[in-house]
Amino acid sequence: MNDTADKLVIFLAKRDGIDKLVKTFQYVSKLVHWHVENTKPDVAQRAKQWEVASGLGRKAFRSGRFLTGFNALRRNPGSTPTFRLLSLFANSGEMVYFFFDHFLWLARIGVLDARLARRMSFISAFGESVGYVFFVISDLIMIRHGLEKQRKLLQCEEAPKDSGSMEKAADSESAVRKIREDRVMRLMATAANIADLIIALADIAPNPFCNHTVTLGISGLVSAWAGWYRNWPV
C-alpha cells in the first residue's frame, strides 16, 4: 500500500502525470454529460462545466510545452536518415500543436478575440495530426526492428550451449526482456497517438464518427490511461 502511495506521489509530481489525471477528469465528465443530458439536466450541466474547466486547465498547464519538440530534435535527431526525417515531421507537428494551443486557450478564456478560437483550433489540430502520424510510423518501425532482434536472440538461446556460452545466454535473456518492455511502451504510445489522432480529426474534418461523444470520450480515456501506464513509476 505504501509503495503504491509513493508511486502515486511520484506520478503526480510529473507534468505528464497531472495532465493524464486531468485528462481522465475531462473525458469522464464528457461521457457523464452525454449519458445524463436528457434525464438529469442539472447533473449534465455540472459535468459540462467540469469538462470545460479540465480542458482549459490542461491548456494552461501545457504552457511552453512546444519547446519539448525542439529539444527532442536538438538532442535526438535520429540514428538514420529515415528516423531523422520521421523525427523532424513528428516533433515539428507537435511543436505546431502546442504553440497554437496557447492562442486557442487565450481565445477561449476571452483574452483574445473569441472568433480566433476556431482558426487556432484547426491549425493546432492539424499540427497535432501530422505529429501523431509520424510518431506512430516511427514506433511501428521500432517495434518491427525489436521483433526481428528478439527472434535472432531467441534462436541463439535455443542453440546448444557450452560452459563458455552460458554468460552470453544470460545477456541474451536480459536483452529480450528489455525488448519486450520497450515494445509494450511503444504499443501504449501508439494506442495513445491513434486515440489523440481521432480527437484531432474531429476538429480538422468534423464527421459523425469522430465527433460522436462516445468516440471522443473513449479515445480521450484510451489516450489518458495509456499515458498513465507509460508515466507510472516502476
UniProtKB/TrEMBL annotation:
Question: How does the entry describe its membrane topology?
Answer: Multi-pass membrane protein
What lineage, starting at the top, does this entry show? Eukaryota, Viridiplantae, Streptophyta, Embryophyta, Tracheophyta
PANTHER family (UniProt xref): PEROXISOMAL BIOGENESIS FACTOR 11, PEROXISOMAL MEMBRANE PROTEIN 11B
Q: Spell out the subcellular localization from the entry.
A: Peroxisome membrane
Q: Which InterPro entries match?
A: PEX11
Q: Which residues cross the membrane?
A: 120-143
Q: Which UniProt keywords apply?
A: Membrane, Peroxisome, Peroxisome biogenesis, Transmembrane, Transmembrane helix
Pfam families (UniProt xref): PEX11 (PF05648)
GO cellular component terms listed in the entry, alphabetical order:
peroxisomal membrane
Name the protein family: Belongs to the peroxin-11 family.
Q: Name one GO biological process term.
A: peroxisome fission
Q: What is this protein called?
A: Peroxisomal membrane protein 11B
